[in-house]
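Problem: given the chain below (244 residues), write out its structure.
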Amino acid sequence: MKEMKWEWIMGVAVWMAGVAGMAGEWAVVPRHGTRAGDAGGFEMGRTEVAVADFVEYLNGAGVPDFPETGQIVRRSGGTYAAKQKVGRQALSEVTPAEAEAYCRWRSQKSKRTVRLPTEAEWEAAARGGVDGAPFPWGWGGKVEEWARFAAPGPAPRIGHSKANGFGLVDMAGNLYEWCAPGAGQPSGFRAARGGSWAERDARRLEVEHRPFFAEGYRGQDVGFRVLREAKDREEGNWRTEHEP
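Solution.
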C-alpha cells in the first residue's frame, strides 16, 4: 500500500502519494470517499498512451487502415512507425473508437480488462484524493508550473507534469483525454477531459471542465489514457466477459 500524506507545495495543500506508489505503468486509485459517494478501486495509466505504445498495437493487431498523422507513418509492407523523436510523446490524432480498439487489444494480451475511464472515474483519478479542488494538484499555484498549456504543442515526452496524489501525471493540460460514453453526452459526441496544450484559459484545465468533441474528431489536442480494473474483480470473470 502506498503511503499518503499532506504536503505543502507552493503554498498549496496537496495530498501526495509516496514515491513507491508512483513507480511502473499503473497507479492505484484506491477506494475512497468523496462528496459524491465512494470512488476509485481501479488502476489508471500513470501517463497518457505514448505514440510508441500505439504503434506496437497497430503492428501487433495488424490494423490495415490507420491514417498517417503528425506522429505516425506507414512503411512499405503495411506496417507503421513513429516519426522521428516522437515515440515517447503522448499520442494524439486518435478517435475514441480507435482508442477503444487499443484497449481491447491490451485486454486480450494481458487477460485483464483495460478500457477508457468513465467521466466519473477520470475525475476521481484526476483529483488525486483532494476532493472538491479545481485542479489535480489542489488549489492555487502557478498553473504553468504544473500543466502543459498555452504552449506550441504537446510535451516532447509523456510525464511532463508533477504527479498528483495518486501518482498520475498530465491530468491537466498536455492533451484532452477521451472518456467512455455515458449519460448526458449528446448523440454523435464524446466527452474528453483535462484540457490541452492548445488552451489559453486555465479554467479549461479544471477537473470539472467537460467539453464534447465529435466522435470522429482526430485532433492534435486529444489523446487518451487507460484504466485497468482491479485484479480481484477480474478473477473468475475474464473468460465469461471476454472469451467465447
